[in-house]
Amino acid sequence: MTQQTYLTTDELSGRIKYDVRTIRERLKDSVLIEGVHYFRPFGGRKILFLWEAIERDMMLPSFHSPVGMSAIPMANGAIVHG
């Protein structure tokens, strides 16, 4: 099993240079997906981010179909074109 680096929102903010509020309000659940990029330990309210998954995915290009409609990224890595 590979070791994961768990980060709080404050720690993630320092690494990716985004404000904590931006992470919570704009990135979480839009580009940072629960179960892929973060999880809630023991079913609680606290959130821990998985650095390796975020680092892997933050360099991916934006997905757009040829007609200009955005694609929807799926948790398993697939893309649904709408």
What does this structure look like?
With 82 residues, the protein is an alpha+beta fold. It has one domain. Helix content is 28%, strand content 16%. The strands form 2 sheets. The chain has a 3-stranded antiparallel sheet. The chain starts with 5 loop residues before the first strand and ends with a strand.
Number of helices: 3
Relative strand content = 15-25%
- Integer average pLDDT: 84
Calculate the terminal CA-CA distance, rounded to whole Å. 36 Å
Widest sheet, order of strands:
1-3-2
| Helix/strand structural class | alpha+beta
Helix content: 25-40%
What overall form do the CA principal axes indicate? globular
- How is the main sheet built? 3 strands, antiparallel
Q: Can you tell me the residue ranges where pLDDT is under 50 for at least 5 consecutive residues?
A: 64-69
Elements, N to C (H/E): EHHEEHEE
Rg is: 14 Å
Q: How many DSSP E strands?
A: 5
How many separate domains make up the residues? 1
Keywords:
alpha+beta, 82 residues, 28% helix, single chain
List strands and helices in order, with pairings:
Blueprint (H helix, E strand, L loop, with lengths): L5 E2 L1 H8 L3 H8 L10 E2 L8 E3 H7 L13 E3 L5 E3 L1
Antiparallel strand pairs: 1-3, 2-3, 4-5
